[in-house]
Amino acid sequence: MDVGPLLELVGAQAALQGDAIRGAQLFGAGQALNEHGLDIGSLNPNTEWENELERDLEMTLRAALGDESFTLEYALGTTLSVNAATDLALGLTRRTPDGARPVDS
To answer: Which end of the chain has fewer CB atoms at under 10 Å, N or C?
Structure first.
């Protein structure tokens, strides 16, 4: 199963809950995994509705973070492995510029 679309949705949820940094990281992770899924044929191209949803999410995240911070956080997300992105989506870790860290309980 391709998790890229699910990561994007969790990123959108994070953004709606006020965590734009996590939202941008998950959006980047989801986009990178979607690209891989398209390359290997395990994912179908987006519908127009999905493209619009992604555009709206990016605009929301850019408005919340500013272009420079969005670009940085999105780029961090694209470097995540499937496992690291899943942990981030589940709230088990926080991704920082110097690496992933467990969330303090």
So the answer is: C
Contacting residues for 42 by C-beta, under 8 A, at least 6 apart: 2
Q: Is 81 left (phi over 0), alpha (psi -120 to 50) or beta?
A: beta
Residue among 38, 34, 43 nearest 11 (CA) = 34
How far is residue 48's CA from residue 52's CA, in Å, rounded to a whole number?
6
Please, are residues 33 and 62 in contact by the beta-carbon 8 Å criterion?
Answer: no
pLDDT tens-digit map of 2-42: 888 999 999 999 999 999 999 999 999 999 998 876 566 66
Alpha carbon 2 to its chain's center = 14
| Residue carrying the six token digits 């670009």 | 71
One-letter amino acid identity for 16?
A: L
